[in-house]
Batch of 2 targets.
Target 1
Amino acid sequence: MVIWITGLPSSGKTTLAQQLVILFEKNRIPCEHIDSDQIRKVFSNTGYSKSARNEHTKMVGYWASRLEHFGVVPIVSLISPYEESRNYARRACSDFFEIHLTTALTVCESRDPKGLYKKARNGEIREFTGISAPYEAPTNAELELDTGTLSICDSTRLIVNHLNTRSGKYLWNSCLK
Amino acid sequence: MVIWITGLPSSGKTTLAQQLVILFEKNRIPCEHIDSDQIRKVFSNTGYSKSARNEHTKMVGYWASRLEHFGVVPIVSLISPYEESRNYARRACSDFFEIHLTTALTVCESRDPKGLYKKARNGEIREFTGISAPYEAPTNAELELDTGTLSICDSTRLIVNHLNTRSGKYLWNSCLK
């Protein structure tokens, strides 16, 4: 299975992915957290244009599918704003579980832990998703979560419920720290 | 372990990688053949400039290291002409086994199964490694093989001997088809 978390900047993708990683590790299920920030540190020449983002998303989708092939569960936290490359990832993977964080732009912007929205509003950052670049919301996500109203714990529980329903393979520890 | 085969176009990288895949599969060792042609089909927007090739090699090196982390042996057949990005791959991986096919340009060009050298000579293909783009030969490869004088079988045996010496983990079937 590939777990793919998409949403606006500061919608909580990385936080939720980290919760899932803890759960998978507790259950000794091999998983790989593929996080946008970390991947962009490695591929620092990747730009933010539509084509660069599509290539980037495609790259993650392709390699997630290869990890999945060997029984590793990739947990992807990536804005992945374009439908085209998200659909590429869906097609590449065998069991694609897309989680769309539907959290409103105003909520995400009010969090702004890295001050990026502020910079985007000031024009210091260009092509910023939600402000100066589009976010094409998924129409076929397996799960939608509004982290503006749901706590991290509740969001994680909803994901886990879905995973349990999808597959009898997963045993979960319901106790989250 | 990561097996990384580098060399000029038509030096025999893919052929040798395919032999290794057969051997690994016979020995039930999970492996992933990461072949240039196949990867370029997926990432068709990747160009052939120095920076594009470096990014491409780096990408393969990074994801090979992640597969290695989960016990899969990536078998990479990639021209990977630049030292900088080959060294990135070496650093990213835990156990990097670089095989340099030292086969002479004249030999590679005389094979030319896809007619690419001919096109490069005619100027129909630009930035072609060995003709109009450089190949920075490795100075620290674990193994050098001249496929101009060694048969496929002999080359494979030499690789297998090296693998057996490096690691007691591998059991090999010496019978190659």
Target 2
Amino acid sequence: MINSKLPKIWYGGDYNPEQWDDPQIWAEDNRMFKLAGIDVATVNVFSWALAQPDEETYDFAYLDETIDRLYKDGIYVCLATSTGAHPAWMAKKYPDVLRVDYHGRKRKFGGRHNSCPNSPTYRKYSERIAEKLAERYKDHPAVLIWHVSNEYGGYCYCDNCEASFREWLKERYGTLEKLNKAWNTRFWGHTFYDWDEIVVPNELSEEWSGNRTNFQGISLDYRRFQSASMLECYKLEYNALKKHTPDIPVTTNLMGFYPELNYFEWAKYMDVVSWDNYPSLDTPYSFTAMTHDLMRGLKQGQPFMLMEQTPSQQNWQPYNSLKRPGVMRLWSHQAVARGADTVLFFQLRRSIGACEKYHGAVIEHVGHEHTRVFRECAELGAELQKLGDKVLDARVEAKVAIVFDWENRWAIELSSGPTVALKYVEEVHKYYDALFNMNVQTAMIGVEEDLSGYDIVIAPVLYMVKPGYAKKVEEFVAGGGTFVTTFFSGIVNENDLVTTGGYPGELRKVLGIWAEEIDALLPGSTNRIVMKESLGTLEGSYECGILCDLIHTKGATAVAEYGSDFYKGMPALTVNKFGQGEAWYVASSPDKAFMEGFMAKLVQDKGIRPLARGPVGLEASRRAKDGKSLLFLLNHNAHAVTAELEAGKAYADAVSGQAVSGNTLEVPGYGVVILEEAK
Amino acid sequence: MINSKLPKIWYGGDYNPEQWDDPQIWAEDNRMFKLAGIDVATVNVFSWALAQPDEETYDFAYLDETIDRLYKDGIYVCLATSTGAHPAWMAKKYPDVLRVDYHGRKRKFGGRHNSCPNSPTYRKYSERIAEKLAERYKDHPAVLIWHVSNEYGGYCYCDNCEASFREWLKERYGTLEKLNKAWNTRFWGHTFYDWDEIVVPNELSEEWSGNRTNFQGISLDYRRFQSASMLECYKLEYNALKKHTPDIPVTTNLMGFYPELNYFEWAKYMDVVSWDNYPSLDTPYSFTAMTHDLMRGLKQGQPFMLMEQTPSQQNWQPYNSLKRPGVMRLWSHQAVARGADTVLFFQLRRSIGACEKYHGAVIEHVGHEHTRVFRECAELGAELQKLGDKVLDARVEAKVAIVFDWENRWAIELSSGPTVALKYVEEVHKYYDALFNMNVQTAMIGVEEDLSGYDIVIAPVLYMVKPGYAKKVEEFVAGGGTFVTTFFSGIVNENDLVTTGGYPGELRKVLGIWAEEIDALLPGSTNRIVMKESLGTLEGSYECGILCDLIHTKGATAVAEYGSDFYKGMPALTVNKFGQGEAWYVASSPDKAFMEGFMAKLVQDKGIRPLARGPVGLEASRRAKDGKSLLFLLNHNAHAVTAELEAGKAYADAVSGQAVSGNTLEVPGYGVVILEEAK
Amino acid sequence: MINSKLPKIWYGGDYNPEQWDDPQIWAEDNRMFKLAGIDVATVNVFSWALAQPDEETYDFAYLDETIDRLYKDGIYVCLATSTGAHPAWMAKKYPDVLRVDYHGRKRKFGGRHNSCPNSPTYRKYSERIAEKLAERYKDHPAVLIWHVSNEYGGYCYCDNCEASFREWLKERYGTLEKLNKAWNTRFWGHTFYDWDEIVVPNELSEEWSGNRTNFQGISLDYRRFQSASMLECYKLEYNALKKHTPDIPVTTNLMGFYPELNYFEWAKYMDVVSWDNYPSLDTPYSFTAMTHDLMRGLKQGQPFMLMEQTPSQQNWQPYNSLKRPGVMRLWSHQAVARGADTVLFFQLRRSIGACEKYHGAVIEHVGHEHTRVFRECAELGAELQKLGDKVLDARVEAKVAIVFDWENRWAIELSSGPTVALKYVEEVHKYYDALFNMNVQTAMIGVEEDLSGYDIVIAPVLYMVKPGYAKKVEEFVAGGGTFVTTFFSGIVNENDLVTTGGYPGELRKVLGIWAEEIDALLPGSTNRIVMKESLGTLEGSYECGILCDLIHTKGATAVAEYGSDFYKGMPALTVNKFGQGEAWYVASSPDKAFMEGFMAKLVQDKGIRPLARGPVGLEASRRAKDGKSLLFLLNHNAHAVTAELEAGKAYADAVSGQAVSGNTLEVPGYGVVILEEAK
């Protein structure tokens, strides 16, 4: 548990006082932080240029003063290493820190996320400043946690990356023969005879439009390599920090479903996962919930930090609407309900210049506390204080798991054919959403996760099956588990080479089917999934689209069939009894109604009950520790709704302590109720 | 007055006889010019390569002959300096004349607008050829005016520009400390410790997609710098010309609302403003009128030159439809009605090769005069001769002014948040359009303009408030003026740094309000402006959108309020009595009906009367001098309409001299009537 | 006739056994080829890197073995020279083989179509390997034909190309004076004084967005030059092959209406035309038919090779749907019906890695023959064997010809104005489609083709009229022919310089009209073509759009007039009697109903009869030789239709030999019937 030094939900956020050289403003900040119940400030995120004005000078006077000033007023710090953007002098003196972009252009100084992860200069100086910070603040009582760099991301294609990529490939493949095989380079006569013939895959070589490639093998490996290169930078800082402060936890702020980094790999080297939650205007709240669950899943359920969210407005969306009254609180509790032990904002005081000045803050440009936004922040601050340590380190338990894998995602997105309409994350969300709407708690897991704790494991579009994974699924099913996968699964191995002998490749055995062809539907066209008999509420017929696998049962039972086209009557949904369990195959991408019926049937078969019942928009999540549990009821509607609780339990409001009578409860519009449960 | 040597509305246009090495064609040209009443030809626009075939050779024989040949037939010249496109040999020998583009690519020879404005070579040779032309033609009686370069535009991002930018910044800020402050470089750790660390802001550094930037400060300054750099080129030529021909006026052709150059700065160095009017197919005629008014406003109402328009067709629109019969005359008189003292075409004879060969011309490819286009040109030529000097130098008087500022535009377009839907020029046009439809004469003014002559000053989206401007507004209102501004005004200073203490910053005092939050509406969403009581025709409720400021009155009166959302009931329109006048704040972007009612109310309060009344599409404009005035009535409809004139005046047709009886008048479809008015 | 060594329709396709180093798989391949009736394999397409692992080593062991193994089982080879993609080592050692792209970027190794056509290295080594292959396999009985490189395409803009372009221009123009004239360089002052001042036209100089240019002259010449440069590469290999194997035919696979290469020029150096037929999902079947006819027209009607098509699925479309049952056979026979003497697939066995692994193949990933796709392939194989040599070398006879010219296409696409809506290929297709729907056989011809064999010649949008072509048309019409052309014709010469004196320039005499203006219509706007009297089924009025020429008759008769706008009543369709024939001018782009009525009238006037009658979707085509003919009936509908045959003939099924009774015949859904005809 990271919160031991400050045993409550940490509350605060990014704070950049260096943008104001004004003691009066700093004093105001502290005054207002206290008014708002803020006890944690994330500092030093972008102060590299300030702390290191040239190659040999380091000056932490400003940081000393900041941390002391905060701590004097009871505010702890999340201390960043400042390496998220390199100084201008460094770019001028050592251009190797500058990236070459996807279009092959050497960049000049500017922006952030701007350092080449294989730049010797960047690695040297980022590690060095991390170590200097650790030495300096290792005993400061204010320091709760280290925040390495900021929102790692973006790829580089420079000569240093090219050279490092070749070394990485040597490490991975050993011989060129193996590499040529893995990348199938005899296609289009691309055989490599010397490692130095390999060039980075971007718009100047094998790729175009970001995710289009001639060779999936090299493109997939380059994503692995860039993710690993950046992770290497993180680890250099991590180790430098740990050398001096072995007991202070270290994190870096992730970005949910961010496509470019394999966060399951990263999480192995993070003491705690933290992430920045910026839903877009059209993000469904179940998608936000799924993202929280994924972030929790990165470390097998360990609670995480909500490192950033906006108090009200964003600035980089095309249309930045205000969070409606109550919504900031609602979304904060949604994070906590799903595993967050912190509620932190970007930012505590609004910048007055540059591109984030129209991003919301606890202290707005007007500068005083008499604003709607501040009032809502202060109310939440007070509530979190009342909540104390009740939720800290409590776990979210789930019997249903959905598999998500970044490398599978890369492979699907890089695929040339059969359809551009297939979006992996959307397919995953379809399954999640159906479970969410039933208030069935779901875990988001990676492919290295042990499956034995789950009743149901769903792996939508498991296109890439890694070594041993089919075996793991077989064991899970044989032991009584329910496994679900879909069209376009089991197609390739970890190098994106097709498993011959019939789709879905290594999954054929457990699924008991053969997929002969895969039809891609035009936009607007659909087929139908026609149930052969009712399965609970799953009856009649449903729309489906995107891809339709033309499958033959090889042991499985066809539960539904296609309703039209030349493959009318072929199986659209199959189930295969395998050992003690069963394995389902959904041959196309179904509509929402099918999903809900299908998930309801599976869940019911396993005796898994919803956490609460209520109308659409009522979200429930439970966190438990030490035999106690908290039930969060969150109402995403603007109007009040009634939640129906599990009978036979006693409930009390976790904030007020008041007992709840009966087993129904009204949750106000955009409201949140947190209940302590007792049997 | 520029027209003294040829005291009538100059008529003619761009003429490139060098494209035909054929005396017979030249003779035909002169014959047809005379047939069409053409008396001015713009020559030498793109002849640099011809006049200077290599670095040291100058040969003006062709130009001598051209000017003499024209003048012999009574045709004067607008003499261009030919520096709008550099010669190919220069690009080869001195690559510094070639630009580096926004994407960071060094260009090769090609196109026009192709010279780097900070190229030593370009500056040296453009100045030199201007001087040579001045020396040679200083006493030629044909020369009416100098036309420097052509349609300046486009930015460069080369190393010479980078070095010059640093010098320009040193000049502007003096110290890096001030620059760092102005650009808020502590954001994202961008502090500069050496001037040479500063790089040009383009897609390789701080910007992307043309108008997106990480740092508004540097991007804004780069726009200022490039506009100034090009102006510097213009001034070098201007001074070279003036040295030898102090009495011949100098101009360069502008392009209306062209975004990249701050024309208010440019106009200070132009003896007369001239511009090229190429409405797009979807340009409203009130937008064209507004653009004429802006061009007139650049030099505080001084008449301008219509330097280019097409006789019929354009070539670079996606769909180049013909100007319908009568429309060329209609749009020519629209220019004159709003301040033009010339009617010039691009082009007199159509090219037969390269990209403008499908651009219309007085002499079409067929080569003879028996075309619809030529007939219409000749009829207009005859009419302008009859009109003589009646309109020359006459002024357009307006009691209503709309403020337009290029730097404000840049800042708004560079802003990250709150919405991409906000288009400054469109918001300005909404106000203009409402006044235009009432035939209320409006001036388009810059922020340096004295306000004392106006009754009403409207500054839509005055996002950037420059030093002293708030004071100027306060004095104007205190003195009895009516001031109007809108949502997202008063936010930043001239460096795009937010004025803290509450929006609308420096304008809070005169407006008597505080804007606490700014909500951005999704596309398709709207709110309503609900009038608390009727103000003239302004009653009931209206639609509004884009942004909604959530304001509190601090002395002002709420005249209307929002009709929905959580800020329902908050003020949407306020008025503040301030001294003898009043200041209005429109908190959202209203619909057309609101605009018309609101403008009608303000105008009525000030006793400003329409120039004429009639159905939609009847435009009226008045030009006056020496106590006399001409009233232009222009019918943008295909059908005839009836105009209702001010009673109690006597009117006579300015072309025919015939008196008009009664105070109504029919204006034919696409027709124009010019009336001499007498009290 | 190319098929003499294997006198039947060759059946097979691209085969890349080097992707599997597995004798068991190779044995399976042969077994399945025989099952499917496959007798030709295209090998060595992408094996350059394999055969030449470094600069001096050549190793054809693998190829020897492949060819022997195939031939042993009776499978012949189409032997590729493998130069469609250069080896990685070559790119590393000799970067001159790498292209510079349209954006000015030097590419790195990757993809295919990747060699600069003016690279000394590429030319040297591609010629050398072609010669080595010819020497080695000149006496191998398996070799049927040479397949040079693969799908030539793409342009390069490197320094070698720039230097070669200058040489090419010297050759073409002789003097800079002539070049300056041809390109009209006095426009925008672009006069060249030295050949070295000329730079390649791409996004760094004169062009942007692919087909937009400032100077049509240079852009047109660059297209000619690049097409010629690549053809030069082809010819180097062609000559190297012919040196050793004068009797083995040589081809390269073309791509139908591929825009970048002038295939009429290429076909002169090809022994037989071959092409790859990959209809997009929205390609009308009449467009595919037109493309076959064009490929046949490249060599004046000589039969061609269908070199590639997919057995079922593509991979590079956005949505890759399966070919429905029967459709592969239908489209194969469509090719044969229109002149193909081969039916070849890409590919015989599916790749397991890289970007084409989801492209269909005869042998799918499952690896066995029990698939729908394989069954359909095998059925077609059997049918083609039964068909024997009946169709080989038979000709398609046509009395109607449609003119298509790549240089005209380039010029139209490069034009700045009057409209972006004009698509040359689409206009050509409109005429073709009307004839196709009547089952009137049509030839697609180039501008060098002799016209004397045709009754009707249609030249839609003949914008560019090359030297002598107007004369050729006059002679054709004078001799009794019917000529049709349209709006925006006769405008420019071969350098894209306008023919002055009135549109349609050199075609004015034969057409008897003058086009004064050309109006471009906005998207969604239309005019009407109103018939002045009925001409057969052409009566009443029709919609038209895109462009409307405003024409005056100068000898011609106005047959129809515009129905609206200010040019209502002006001629919209004219016919001019000229000698024994007549010349029609269609002044706008008409709707489908007009086209069908107009084509029906012309065809009827000439007594040309349909090959068969039936509902929409019934396609007929005839091939004849030695006094015998085969009539192909192809049903593009999913349901059966009845075809009405010409009376008075005897018909027998060409495959089964069974006589057909009566003169109607049912063709099944997606079905094909091939009839032997006898009088």
